[in-house]
Amino acid sequence: MNSESHSAAEIPSRLDLVQEDIRLACEAADRPANAAKLVAVSKTMPAAAVADAIEAGQRIFGENRVQEAHGKWPALRDLHPDVELHLIGPLQTNKVKEDVALFDVIETVDRPKLARALAVEMERVAKRPRCFVQVNTGEEPQKAGIAPDEAPEFVTLCRETFALPIVGLMCIPPQDEEPAMHFALLAKLAGELGLKELSMGMSADFETAIMFGATYVRVGTAIFGARVLLE
Fold it and tell me: What H or E segment, with its residue span, contains residue 169?
């Protein structure tokens, strides 16, 4: 599927299906129907596809590449200033200025150097995007995120030393493991730390994540179809 195949009819119907699945999962978990919000993951998607989703009523989006996001989102946000944009990919300290300026929520805070850089930039520009701490629940060496046993100390550092607006935790479970145990671990950590927000669950497992308390689920393929390969 290429970028031209994402018709204006396909995306709204897919959005409706995902939203209905979210509602049903919340109901099955005995949670309010709106307990889990949908983050439509628009990385690699052209602006026209994103515009179709916005026109269909979607207002929360996730991007993982700052350069790509800067290429398509300023014009979209001029037209739709109520859109909420989440950074869901790795964050480099030398991109903090751009990240703080563009994003409303940063989901991938995972190391002291980054926390310090974010705090300095937020103070400089008087803008404070809400932040999630990314936890590497599978302790995978190739994956970003703070180790679970280091998360309490790191969250305290972010809150007390750097005064970051930490609202929740985020994780990406290993692909070859049952995600439920990772969602359960993240929920347990959040509860111990007094954090209300949990960003977990993607197209293949968001219903399971909702069972374990997800308040944000990140869904891309189920809405937009196959990814567009970027050169």
Answer: strand 166-170
Residue pair 96/121 in contact by the 8 Å Cβ criterion? yes
DSSP 146: B
**The predicted structure's pLDDT at residue 29:** 97
pTM over cut 0.90: yes
Structure tokens at 97: 């200025």
Least confident of 70-74, 93-97, 217-221, 222-226: 222-226
Rounded to a whole number of angstroms, the distance between the first and last alpha carbons of the chain is: 16
User: How many residues does the structure list for the chain?
Assistant: 231
Give the separation between CA 195 and CA 89, rounded to whole angstroms: 21
Q: Can you tell me the distance from the alpha carbon of 222 to that of 49, in angstroms, rounded to the nearest whole number?
A: 13
Distance, in Å, from the CA atom of 29 to the CA atom of 207, rounded to the nearest integer, reads 9
Q: In 80-165, at which residue ranges do the beta strands (DSSP E only) sit?
A: 84-87, 105-109, 130-134
Contact 174, 183 (CB under 8 A): no
Instruction: Give the pLDDT confidence of 129-167 residue by residue, as tens digits.
Output: 999 999 999 999 999 999 999 999 999 999 999 999 999
d(CA 201, CA 221): 13
